[in-house]
């Protein structure tokens, strides 16, 4: 075939032993099929990453060449052919394909995240299962920052440990605001204390609904009184899950019976943390051993408070402890006429030691049952 100048084309490459494929197209002004895999090696970052790990593809072919007289027509037909092929094979949502979009449409961001490349200092997209992301070598660009509204009304990002964020001099632009819906389903942005929310004129999109997961793993909303939740056909999305953190401080959801949770490598996200107050009364979270607690820069909520006590009406004493009676008080107080009579138990114990055989066993079991209740 005679190729004309600036010839768009589509191509297919693959690693047959891994069953991994990629379909692409090229329509630049200087493009030509003879340049394929000579000077042009696709523009996909996913293909480049895969080649670094598994080598060059063993299958490479030109699928379609477009030689229309008009260049714009050639480009449009080339793009449409690639989009149709990717749609028909379902490449975007198939793990056997490296295509993540259809001609810039339907980008598949599920399971992906944006991180900062430490070498180029640019943002790149990687899988959330990437080992460098899991071990903390790669971080999201906004980690440790918060969006705040500064005095001139503009939004900006500041480090979360900035004193202006900690002291709430600059606040989040969404603070005190929420998105609600009217009876027609039209979204409205308003304040959280809007009287129309209390009256029911406006309500949240998920009011009276709960996020669940069915047996096929599909996630969607249903009404809170749906019978399928009671029958077990639907499970709550967070059922059997907990929020954990790894040794690098990354927080995420994990199953309560996950091996890393059971081994202690992943712990509850709030383990080792307490809620304290700044001198102006702002509530913050910090680690239990924060040195600012000793210097007075942060104040423990129970500092200066007395240990709570509870008055026992039976022995007429103030019992130190929580709001509940301690083990030896309340219904179990020795002065409680309806409680245990230790003198009677002692008398029974002396009496039944003179017994033998089955009677001895029955009496021993009865007394053990009484004593077990008041241990």
Gap between N and C termini: 95 Å
- The SSE order reads EEHEHEEHEEHEEHEEHEEEHEEEHEEHH
Largest sheet: 3 strands, antiparallel
Structural class: alpha+beta
What amount of the residues lies in strands? 15-25%
- For the residues shown, what is the average pLDDT? 78
Q: What is the global morphology?
A: elongated
Q: With helices defined by DSSP (H or I, 4 residues minimum), what is the helix count?
A: 10
Instruction: Report the C-alpha radius of gyration, rounded.
Output: 34 Å
Unreliable stretches covering 5 or more consecutive residues? 322-327
**In order across it, which strands form the biggest sheet?**
2-1-3
User: How many distinct beta strands?
Assistant: 19
Helix content: 10-25%
């Amino acid at each position: 075939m005679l190729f004309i100048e600036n010839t768009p084309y589509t191509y297919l490459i693959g690693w047959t032993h891994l069953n991994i494929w990629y379909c692409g197209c090229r329509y630049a002004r200087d493009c030509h099929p003879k340049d394929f895999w000579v000077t042009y090696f696709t523009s996909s970052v996913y293909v480049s990453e895969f080649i670094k790990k598994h080598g060059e593809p063993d299958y490479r072919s030109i699928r379609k060449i477009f030689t229309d007289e008009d260049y714009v027509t050639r480009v449009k037909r080339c793009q449409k052919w690639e989009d149709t092929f990717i749609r028909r094979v379902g490449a975007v949502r198939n793990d056997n394909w490296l295509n993540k979009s259809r001609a810039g449409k339907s980008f598949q961001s599920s399971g992906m995240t944006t991180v900062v490349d430490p070498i180029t200092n640019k943002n790149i997209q990687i899988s959330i299962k990437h080992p460098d992301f899991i071990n903390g070598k790669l971080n999201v660009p906004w980690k440790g920052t918060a969006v705040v509204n500064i005095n001139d009304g503009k939004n900006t990002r500041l480090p979360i440990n900035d004193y202006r964020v900690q002291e709430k001099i600059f606040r989040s632009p969404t603070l005190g605001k929420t998105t609600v819906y009217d009876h027609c389903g039209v979204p409205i942005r308003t304040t959280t204390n809007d009287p129309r929310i209390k009256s029911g004129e406006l309500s949240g999109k998920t009011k009276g609904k709960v996020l669940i997961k069915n047996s096929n793993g599909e996630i969607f909303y249903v009404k809170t009184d749906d019978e399928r939740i009671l029958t077990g056909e639907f499970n709550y999305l967070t059922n059997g899950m907990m929020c954990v953190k790894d040794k690098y401080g990354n927080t995420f959801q994990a199953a309560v019976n996950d091996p890393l949770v059971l081994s202690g490598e992943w712990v509850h996200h709030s383990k080792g943390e307490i809620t304290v107050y700044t001198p102006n009364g702002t509530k913050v979270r910090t680690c239990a051993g924060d040195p600012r607690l000793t210097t007075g820069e942060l104040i423990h909520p129970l500092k200066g408070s007395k240990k709570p006590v509870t008055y026992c009406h039976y022995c007429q004493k103030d019992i130190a402890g929580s709001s509940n009676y301690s083990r030896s008080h309340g219904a179990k107080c020795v002065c409680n006429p309806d409680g245990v009579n230790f003198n009677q138990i002692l008398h029974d114990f002396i009496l039944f030691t003179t017994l033998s055989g089955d009677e001895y066993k029955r009496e021993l079991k009865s007394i053990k049952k009484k004593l077990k209740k008041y241990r």
